[in-house]
């Protein structure tokens, strides 16, 4: 992977040296500078170039988002990058075919070049010791270098209509015409129809190729068909975002959708929506600003969407995972505190209602202030009441229930490891310290039945069952009750 990226950067450096005048263009270069007037003009859709650019950007977002979803789940992101760069020689050859920028000729040439690149990657991977990432890097760099040389040669050919051929490098959405839109519409419709008709087959072959092969699905044919659609998508996107950035439009919306859901149909829907949003944002800000290129702004729009998902996704976002980790750590801290209170009461034979902070500090090997802080957290969650003057703590009925459950989980797991796994009793404590916080009620019931409702743990300490500790009064004072208390 690193080798492929290094080769790509070398190619980009060579491109900058060979074609210094190549740049990305914006929509409406002669538009007035007033931002509000520009915004009103954008939403009026009066400019033909704007309409073509916006429609093309939306079609690009739909097609790239849909196919990018399959690329991401198949872990073929670098292959998409390789095909996007491998089409460049085909663009040049398509131009040389008729010596003008004919969309059909360029489409055919670029598609053939992209498929040739994918074929060579597969050939190198199958018939050599090289890994796939190395093969991808070789093909990407070679085809891209050939494309740059051909484009440079085309620029030096006297005569001919060479206008716009250099825009395939970095894109020029403003140059999209009706022929380009028709071609993008056909490719987008083809991708949508294929995904709809072959959704189950593509789904199975994406996640479990071995199972798909065993069931008789033509996995290789599905793979090559998807690569053909990918080549179509890349070629149609070249005019808008260029060879260098088209892979970002394939991967970024799908990567953002991947962070939001674990269901494939939702991932594809989100990827399409994000692709449309990125395309529309790129067109809008390019039209709004001064000398702002459309293609890079589309990619930046997609990257912004990804950044938001990366930070705020409900399950896989950084903030969500940080909050979950923080909440789990605080819960474990509270449960350990409840367990310590239970142990202090157990040592005293469950006599008395309160536990002094000093006793807890000695038990937990913490300072007085740390115990006070942890006790305050129990009070905030209605698990205990605290007397500041006497420096003592009393558990509420909910606190006693949770404390008993944690101690029960701990001792049941110790007994299970000792009886079933044959682990020595003096080696099970640390494991039980971790598992006690995640055992669910159903697992605890299974452990109880498997251990025949045992009364004591491997160390001879009583295991608190559902009836082992009851609340004697509303103040939460515990009373010891003999017997395990089987459930009927």
Features:
20 helices, mainly alpha, disordered C terminus, 488 residues, ABC transporter involved in vitamin B12 uptake, BtuC, 3-stranded antiparallel beta sheet, elongated, 3% strand, disordered N terminus, Arc Repressor Mutant, subunit A, 2 domains, two-stranded antiparallel sheet
Low-confidence blocks of residues: 1-25, 468-477, 479-488
CATH topology of the largest domain: ABC transporter involved in vitamin B12 uptake, BtuC
DSSP helical segment count: 20
Q: Radius of gyration, Cα only, in angstroms?
A: 33 Å
Structural class comes to: mainly alpha
Shape: elongated
Q: Supply the CATH architecture of the largest domain.
A: Orthogonal Bundle
Largest sheet: 3 strands, antiparallel
Describe the structure in brief:
A hairpin with a 4-residue loop joins strand 2 and strand 3 (392-395).
Structural summary, described in words:
By secondary structure, the chain is mainly α. The protein has two domains: 2-16 and 23-314, ABC transporter involved in vitamin B12 uptake, BtuC (Orthogonal Bundle), CATH 1.10.3470; 317-488, Arc Repressor Mutant, subunit A, CATH 1.10.10.10. The protein contains 20 helices and five strands. It has a three-stranded antiparallel β-sheet. The protein has a two-stranded antiparallel sheet with strand order 4-5. Helix 3 crosses helix 12 and helix 6 (103-126) runs antiparallel to helix 7. The longest helix is centred in the middle third of the chain and has 40 residues, at 219-258. The chain starts with a helix and ends in an 8-residue tail after the last strand.
